[in-house]
Description:
- Helix 13 runs antiparallel to helix 14.
- This protein is an all-alpha fold and 349 residues long.
- 75% of the residues lie in helices and 0% in strands.
Amino acid sequence: MGDIFNHLLKLHARLCREAPPAVGALVKWMIRFQFGDGQDFFLIDPVDYAPALGAKGLAKYQDELEQIAATIPAEPGEAQKRAAWKLRMEHPGAGELPSQHAHARFVLQYNAERLSVAHRDAAGIIETHAGDQSRAYKLHNTAKALFEIGATELAIDWAKRAAFLEDGHQAEQAGKYWCELLHEHRAGEELAARHTQFSRWPSSANAARLHLAAGEASPSLQAEVLEKLAERPNDYIEFLLQTLQDVPLAWAEAHRLDLDSAAQWEDLVEAYQLYDPLAVLPVLERIIEASLTVADARNYRMVVRQLRKHHAIATAANRAADTAVLLSSIRARNRNRPRLLRELAVLKY
């Protein structure tokens, strides 16, 4: 439902651009929708409405926001918040909850950010988005907003700053965006950036992007990539299987490392059955037995799917009877699971 509502809002903005209503009425609706209609889930983007508002309408809208901001007290400090919560807990109904104006502050901040984009104001974007420049996600958002107004060089610079600001997931996402910008606008710098990204966050996804960027130079980086990924078996096997598409090596290494991901073993079975169908049957049987450890209807349906795969592979290897033996054993060992037996009834092996 949320997606449908957002599509309707996008449609509303488009219709306002194509058949602009009276500016005053549009500004009044935009304010009421965000601050007075009793909903606090959906936001509207003033950038989408800027063509319908025009310069005068944007100024009027901004003036309305400033009037609202003037009625909201400054955000309490941490000490004040703790004291207010303590008072509220000890004396219900007394004192103001720290979150009482939190949503209004959030909406005002969001509008300040989007209005800086609507005005194509690079300095304003930096001021409204970056904050005290201590968090990677804020610098990442700054970069995206700068790119939105066509300030590509600034966007690249801020994305890079975001990537190197912290070490966590948010900085990694900023680094990915930095590399994407380089791919489109400074292709000669992409490989070094992808290498840096992988070195800081070694994963199968970052390794795949580095491999793609390296092109013909990929073999010279491969030993380093595999060495780093070997410390993360799941990523290592995924890279071998999905990116290098070296199925025999992925199969052998998964056994050597005693890989514990059932999903990856299923992918390996799917790929390696073309090389040695008999070799994959014991692995598939272990996956089936593991699926039976938890009594759950979803697991039972998964077992049926896996048994069908087992039968197809066994038949191709002239060992169709193996599936019948396995199925008979499962039924005998699980005769007290009526739901499982009903699911298995569709199999006639």
